[in-house]
Amino acid sequence: MLSPLLGRPLGTVPPPLGGKAARLWVMPGMKTLKAYENRVKRGELFPPFLMLALTDSCNLRCRGCWISQVEQTQRAKKPRELSPEQVQTVIDAGKKQSCFYYTLLGGEPLLYPHLWEILEKNRDCYFQLITNGLFLDADAARRLRKCGNVTVLLSLDGTRECNDRRRGEGVYDAVKEAAKCLHQEGILFGVATTVTAENLSDVTADAYVDELVRWGAMYLWYYIYRPVGADPAPELAVPGEGILELRQKILDLRRRKPIILIDTYWNAAGEAVCPAARGMSFHIGPAGTIEPCPPISFACETVGDRGGDLFATINESAFLRGFQDFVNARTRGCVILEHPRELAEFIRSHHPTDATARPDGLAELAAATPKCSHHQPGEEIPENTWFYRFLKKKMFFGLGGYA
C-alpha cells in the first residue's frame, strides 16, 4: 500500500506545490523535532507546534463546539481576533526555535480579515488551515495555490446525514464542493473528522474513507470528541471500548487505503499521548492567550507579555509547566475526559483568565462527568507498519514525534 500512498500526491499535487510542501513542511519537521528534543534536554519549554485561533467568529453552530460565537442577537459585539502583530510575534518567536509549521484555526479562519497577509508575508513557513469549507470557493482555492505554502484541512464528520446532524443542513454538500475546488487547483488537502459515539462506525467504514480518496483528500485526521463548552453533548463521547475499536480500525485502514491516516493520541508503541502534557503543542486563543490546548480555554499569559518574548513567556509559565505535571501524574491520555473536576480545581488554583468568553467556563468543566480516554493500560495496540512507526518517531505535526 505504500506505493499508492506516496504515488497519489505525486500524481495529483503539481510539482511546485508538492516541492514547497516537502521543503517547508516535511523536511524541516525533523529539524524542528530535533530542536525540540534539545530544548527538553536543557529543561526548556517551547513546543515544536503551535496552533493559532485567528478569530472566534464562525458561521456554524456545531453541537459540542467549545468556541463562543457572536449570536445574532449580539451582532454589535465584535468577535475576538488576533491582530496581525500578535500573529507575527508568534511566528517570529517560533522561527527562532526552528519552528516553521503552524496550524491556523478559529472559529472560521477564512473570516479572519488578515489571513492572506499572514500567508503571503511568511513564505518561508508552511501553514495548515482548518476550515469548515463554506467560504472555500474557486477564487479562494486559486489564491491558496498562488500562496503555495498552505495545506487545507476540511472539517467533516461522516456521511451527509451524520455530518449535517451535528454541523447543520447542507454543510456536507458545501464541504464536498470545497474539496472539488481544492482538487482542481492541485492543493494538498485533508479532512478532519471528529469521532463521536454516534458516528464511529460511519467514519471508520471503507465507504467513508474511499469517498474522501475520490474527492482528492491526501490525509484524514481523526479526533476523539471531548464534551466541553456551553453545549457539551456528553452523549456524543466515545466509550472506552469504542476508543479501542477506533484504534484497531485506524491500523487496519492504514494497511489498506491510499490515504495518510493521522491521529494525535497514540505513539508508535500504541501508548496514549497528550501532546500538551508533553509540551509538544500549545494553543494561542483569539484574545492572544497562551492555552494548553484548544478545548482548555484558560491562560495565565498572553503573547504580548515580557515585551513579546514568547519563548521566555512560555518557558517561565508556572501554569503551563504545572499543567504538564498535573496531567502526567494522572494519565497519559486526555485529562479533560478522565479528570474534569480535578482539572477545574487545578486551573482555578492558578487564577487564570477565562478565555471561553462565556459566563463561567470553569463551572462548565467542573460539572462534567468523568469518561474514558485513550489511556487504557494493558490494551495498547502498537503500530503495525514500518512507515507509520517511522512517522510517529520522526515527525511532529500530528503524526507523532513521540519516541
If you had to describe this structure to a student in words, what would you say it looks like?
The chain has a single domain (1-59, 79-403), classed as pyruvate-formate lyase- activating enzyme, CATH 3.80.30. Helices cover 41% and strands 12% of the residues. The protein contains 16 helices and 11 strands. The chain has helices at residues 2-12, 15-41, 84-96, 115-121, 138-147, 160-167, 171-184, 200-203, 206-215, 240-256, 310-315, 318-328, 335-338, 340-349, 361-366, 386-394; strands at residues 49-53, 101-105, 126-131, 150-155, 189-195, 219-224, 260-262, 281-284, 290-291, 298-299, 353-354. The strands form 2 sheets. It has a 9-stranded mixed sheet. The chain has a two-stranded antiparallel ribbon with strand order 10-11. It is globular and about 50 Å long. The relative contact order is 0.13.
Short recap of the structure:
This protein is an alpha/beta fold. 41% of the residues lie in helices and 12% in strands. It is built from 16 helices and eleven strands.
Task: Estimate what percentage of residues fall within beta strands.
Answer: 5-15%
Average pLDDT, rounded to a whole number, is 91
User: Measured on Cα atoms, how large is the radius of gyration?
Assistant: 20 Å
- How many helices? The count is 16
**What is the overall silhouette?**
globular
Share of helical residues? 40-55%
For the largest beta-sheet, the strand count, sense and barrel status come to:
9 strands, mixed
One letter per element, helices H and strands E, the order comes to: HHEHEHEHEHHEHHEHEEEEHHHHEHH
Considering the protein shown, what is the CATH homologous superfamily?
pyruvate-formate lyase- activating enzyme
Count of domain modules: 1
Please report the distance between the alpha carbons of the first and last residues: 24 Å
Name of the CATH first level: Alpha Beta
Backbone structural class: alpha/beta
Identify low-pLDDT runs.
Answer: 70-76
Largest sheet, spatial ordering of strands? 7-6-5-4-3-2-1-8-9
What is the CATH topology classification name?
A: pyruvate-formate lyase- activating enzyme
- CATH architecture title: Alpha-Beta Horseshoe
Tally the beta strands: 11
